[in-house]
Amino acid sequence: TAPDTAVRPRIPLNTAMAAIGGLLLAIGLALLIEYLSDRVATSEDVAAATHIGTLAAIGRIDGVEASDKLVMLKDPFSLVSEAYQMLRVKLEIARFEKPLQTLLVTSSGPGEGKSTTAANLALAIARSGKRVILVDTDLRRPSLHRFFRHANLRGVTTALVRDPADSLYNHMIPTAMENLLLLPSGPVPNDPAVMVSSAKMAELMTELKSMADVVVFDSPPLLAVADATPLAHQCDATLLVVLAGATRTSQLRRASDQLLQAGV
Length: 264
Fold this sequence. Notes:
The chain is of the alpha/beta class and 264 residues long. It has helices at 11-36, 43-50, 71-74, 79-94, 114-127, 144-147, 156-160, 192-196, 199-209, 228-234, 249-261, and strands at 102-107, 132-136, 173-174, 180-183, 214-218, 237-241.
């Protein structure tokens, strides 16, 4: 007797087999991409690449403008702000024998959040009652003045060539936080590497230390230019910022090795 239903195609069976095959293929591709990925995703990845622990994990901050990233001002009780406070506490604990007076914030490459971290960390330290000066020593692509919505007419570069009678305070900008001063980069020089490595820069850093409890420096990326290493060498410690899902493991390892070789 001829069957009443079609022998082929078996639509339900074929659909189920295609779904299972597609699922297995998707899982296999995901595992392959994860295996071949050279990007840092977790604190464990950082520890494996650098053999150094992570001080804090900061959540991503929404906002288009640079000023939108100042969560310590806009929302001081948010989870991200609490993470910055935890970072401040961890830094103090790490340096409990010798208080931290100068801190450089950098990253292996551009766009990893070093300036955002420097600005919010400076605000967190200032909120704890300490006198803080935030300095933009990224003389190639300065950005801290945009975080606080100020012009970049005066700053580090003008302070380095100022008259001895001219007060350094004239080159700083007050912020919404009472005990936080901002020293922008000033006009971008022709040869930033020479300027940050000069004896006058060392004198400026010494002068800044005498004016505040903590001085936080934002610097260019380590692997992009040579400016950050001499600055890091003169600071008490260096904070290396890593962007999850973006920073490559090889870049992070090279940046960490470069700092350790410089005695940082």
